[in-house]
Amino acid sequence: MASRTTAIERGEETGPTSRRSGRLVYRQSIWTRLTHWVWAVCIFFMVTSGLMIFNARPDLYVGQQSGFGFDNTVLSIGAERTGDGGVRGVTRVFGHPFDTTGFLGVSGSADNPTIRAIPAWATIPSYYDLGTGRVVHFFFAWILVATMLVWWISALVNRHLWRDIVPGGKDLKRLPSDIGDHARLRFHHTRSYNVLQKLSYAGILVVVIPLLILTGLTMSPGVVPSWSWLLDLFGGRQTARTIHFVCMLLVVLFFIVHVLMVVAAGPINELRSIITGWYRVDDEESEEEGAR
């Protein structure tokens, strides 16, 4: 029994062969599956509540403070009056204006426009309530921190981090061909993640989410007095806020691409893997395993 458990943890145990496709392999451990779904819930509520908080000051700066006698604005979302007495949404990126009416700055119908940086459908709560937004955001933020701690411990103990997440030299050599396969929507169902999966998972789990946590702490008045080194690390509270926002956009982009790839690669097989742990590999991999 002990040897069987070890094989499962290594992702080496296989199930019965299907007539129409390859063999089932145990690909995702219980820790990977649990943390995956907790992260999904946390990220949803953190993004939507974070956008509510952002509505209180829909501007991003670089440095220790926002500019009054100087301009250090990176992003600004607002509304402007038009010549015909109407209103339009304007988003400025490094000073360059873009008309974002209907999405950012001004949303709703032309007869009854709503002047609001982020529209109601994208925030929790949908109405403007900064206090509730903060409560929701911080509640799920601490759940995210605890889940990340559990994942890091389990990933280091069972070597999931180095074996499955961080790409090695052999993985990087396959990067051009892997990009070509994805561009042609040609997916290989194997026990191991492909190099694009490893790069994206490593980027999110090792870089982006830790940055989200650290920059979030940097913006906290209750944390900075004890951890003042965070301000030096990120070059000021406003820079930390900008990095925090950019990391949020990267997480949202990852989520969109992740869902699209699940659908394109075969949603039943992919969802079975992250729910039950079992994943059906291609016929050729089953034949190679049988030969060994």
UniProtKB/TrEMBL annotation:
Its main location: membrane. Coiled coil: none annotated. Keywords: Cell membrane, Membrane, Transmembrane, Transmembrane helix. It is a multi-pass membrane protein. It is found in: Cell membrane. Gene3D superfamilies: Transmembrane di-heme cytochromes, Chain C. Residues 27-277 form the Cytochrome b561 bacterial/Ni-hydrogenase domain. The keyword Transferase does not apply. One of its GO terms (cellular component) is plasma membrane. It comes from the Bacteria. One of its GO terms (molecular function) is electron transfer activity. PANTHER family: CYTOCHROME YDHU-RELATED, NI/FE-HYDROGENASE 1 B-TYPE CYTOCHROME SUBUNIT. This is Cytochrome b/b6 domain-containing protein. It comes from Pararhizobium mangrovi. The lineage of its organism: Bacteria, Pseudomonadati, Pseudomonadota, Alphaproteobacteria, Hyphomicrobiales.
